[in-house]
Predict the structure.
Amino acid sequence: MAAMKRYLEEYIRKDLQRKIILLTGPRQTGKTTLAKILSLTGLCFW
């Protein structure tokens, strides 16, 4: 099953080049999934 496209993903990818990103929010909203997807870019540490 493919992950949902999140509207903030592109903004986060751009910010990862210069900033530290903290993913917060309620349970079961896809924070870990988004972090794993972003880790595939090689720009972040998991």
